[in-house]
Amino acid sequence: MAARKSHKRSIPSELSPIVCLWILRFLVPLGGHKEFIGPCGFSNDLLASALGLNKLLDISFQDFEPKVALVELIELYRIHEKKLQDPVAFPYLSRNLGLLEKLVGLSDIDRKILEFAVLIRSEHLLDDAADCLQELSTTKLFHVLSISLDLPEQAVREALSHNGILSKSGLVSIDRDTSRNLSRKLVPLSTSFADAILSSDADPISLLRDTVVLSTPGQLTISDYEHISPSLAILRPYLRQVTEMGKEGVNILIHGAPGTGCTVSWTATRPRSVACNTW
Which of 10, 77, 142, 219 has a CA 20 to 30 Å removed from the CA of 30? Predict the structure, then answer.
């Protein structure tokens, strides 16, 4: 008799189309059905019910046919692959991802991976389905994300590389040292970050409060920079003009001896404002 997971949670409302599609991609093309469908029933009745396989749950253990269950599962997968995905199933998440996209410079691929990393932390059935894939190596993780998100595997590798925006910003990291279940292999910034980006109408900086904090107000004034007054005579009118015109992508690089803290990029990002980024 196949073991079934015991769930005390109530059956959820209808799964969002994108989450349902990801689950079915875990189970069908990625082979998770081998764990999900046992000889006498499903390993997770709650997941089976959420996918609409209730009629197979009513069958006795003795009459359960794994091949029939697999045919039903494959048909569900084919149907959902043809369906249009609902882009507004998670309105706060969609809005907040858009804000982070502009703030951090995320690509479309970065955004899809970040969305996935957040939802696998919050959608318990998605996490349950991912467990059917068992523990993943880093190489296997790239393949799973490629199939699940319908992205080229090389693009996934590049997005999650040490030089990628996701890694540099800390928004998503991966455990490269050991094989783990998917939700533990792909790690968003923090649990509070995942909760906030999914369920709150927050400003971008507050979403990053676990790693980014506003600095204290500066104490220096223009009189502290008299030693570079010739350069300032050129720089200040230039900055004033580009901010008044609202030009984007205007950069000024100040350089000097290593360790003096003078590598600063002043970027006019929107009308009447100048952002200062240091690295």
Answer: 10
| Separation between Cα atoms, residue 128 and residue 133, nearest integer Å | 10
Most confident of 47-51, 172-176, 184-188: 47-51
Residue 136: C-alpha distances to residues 36, 162, 258 (Å): 17, 19, 42
pLDDT tens for 43-86 read: 999 999 999 999 999 888 889 999 999 999 999 999 999 876 55
CA atoms within 13 A on the CB side of 227: 1
Look at the pTM and tell me if it is higher than 0.85: no
Task: Answer whether 183's CB lies under 8 Å from 130's CB.
Answer: yes
